[in-house]
Design brief:
elongated, 14 strands, TIM Barrel, single chain, 10-stranded mixed β-sheet, two-stranded parallel sheet, alpha/beta, binds iron/sulfur cluster, DNA polymerase, domain 1, 32% helix, 353 residues, 20% strand, 11 helices, disordered C terminus
Length: 353
């Protein structure tokens, strides 16, 4: 796919920024809404074909903006129907986006960075370090492009999770701008903020900003209930240890009936003992929380192991018995390295089409 290089991707502009840009040309703000509806609701790629706009406005848009679809370098399909898209970016970098079939709907897992600087030991993305942040347009385009494909196939794509490559709060401005478009029900992609979840390792200073700037669900990648274990698994914990992180979670303003999801990857012999479950319960005391237990997805680059099923079941039982909501989430797409922690933006796909 060829990308226009001298024009701005209109997906890099939020509605407010497009309104301000048009205002400089004396164009009233409702025309921005018309443009955005063409781009996101009608999935148009051609300004000239936006027939309810004046010819002058169409020409102005066409002179300054382009609409970038992501190049689909590969698609891998898992036996459970999970699809992993390897998208090519204009500078030759690649990111992965995963479309996951669930009961009655589909969920899309999107990336926010090429690579990642956080260095979590269980994660494939961490291996190459951070290459660069995705632009706002590149984050939106993952959703817009796959939503078009889902619509063409009659799939019910309702949920978006920001859990792919990268730490979203380390690319804060672009992620929040993209979320404003993804959750705009009038002119944007129209996903309910209740069905959009952002997952973070816990960059504490950004949590209050996130609560002020968005209404999406918060998930915190926890993975250990003591600082020694968590720092060994996730170097970020040395900057924001558990006491600081949990204080920020306690202060996080939650709408009625919302909870913070705490993701806990269960790794054999590392964080799956009864004492770990006990510490986890007391750590979450007083927080409206749900725990997602994710049995580790083994991969060749890491010698961690998945706990035995009996250990997984016992860990969950201990949380439930203590009154803590806890579900075991078995990642999908494990046979195409699309499961949690397996994304890395390289072309190691077993089954292409
Ligand atoms: S788990 Fe997330 S934050 Fe940690 S290294 Fe991987 S992509 Fe980055």
């Amino acid at each position: 796919m060829k990308f226009a290089t001298n024009k701005t991707d209109i997906q890099d502009l939020t509605g407010d920024r497009l309104r301000a840009w048009l205002a400089d040309y004396g164009i009233r703000s409702f025309h921005a809404d018309q443009v955005l509806r063409w781009v996101y609701r009608r999935q148009s790629d051609d300004f000239v074909a936006m027939t309810d706009l004046s010819k002058t406005l169409r020409r102005l848009l066409d002179d300054h903006f382009c609409l970038k679809r992501l190049a689909v370098d590969r698609v891998a399909v898992a036996t459970d129907g999970t699809r992993k898209f390897l998208f090519g970016l204009p500078d030759g970098q690649q990111v992965e986006t995963v479309l996951i079939p669930e009961r009655g709907h589909h969920t899309l897992c999107i990336s926010t960075q090429v690579g990642c600087a956080q260095g979590c030991r269980f994660c494939m993305t961490a291996r190459g370090g951070l290459v660069r942040n995705l632009t706002c347009g590149e984050i939106i385009a993952q959703v817009r492009d796959v939503a078009a494909l889902a619509a063409a196939e009659g799939l019910n794509l309702t949920n978006v999770v920001i859990m792919g490559m990268g730490e979203p709060l380390a690319n804060y401005r672009h992620v929040v701008d993209a979320l404003s478009v993804i959750t705009d029900s009038d002119c944007g992609l129209g996903f309910s903020s209740r069905r959009v979840t952002l997952s973070t390792v816990g960059l504490v200073p950004r949590l209050a900003d996130l609560a002020a700037d968005t209404r999406v669900n918060l998930a915190v990648s926890l993975n250990a209930a003591d600082d020694e274990t968590r720092s060994a698994l996730m170097p970020t914990n040395r900057r924001y240890p558990l006491e600081t992180l949990m204080a920020a979670c306690r202060a996080y303003p939650l709408a009625p009936r919302r909870r913070i999801t705490f993701e806990y990857i269960l790794i054999a012999g590392i964080n799956d003992r009864p004492g770990d479950a006990r510490r986890l319960v007391s750590l979450l005391h007083g927080i409206r929380a749900k725990v997602n237990l994710i049995p580790f997805n083994e991969h060749p680059a890491c010698d961690f192991r998945r706990p035995a099923q009996a250990v997984i079941d016992a860990f969950q039982r201990q949380l439930l018995d203590a009154g803590q909501t806890a579900v075991v989430r078995y990642s999908k797409g494990g046979d195409i390295a699309a499961a949690c922690g397996q994304l890395r933006g390289t072309a190691r796909l077993e089954e292409d089409r």
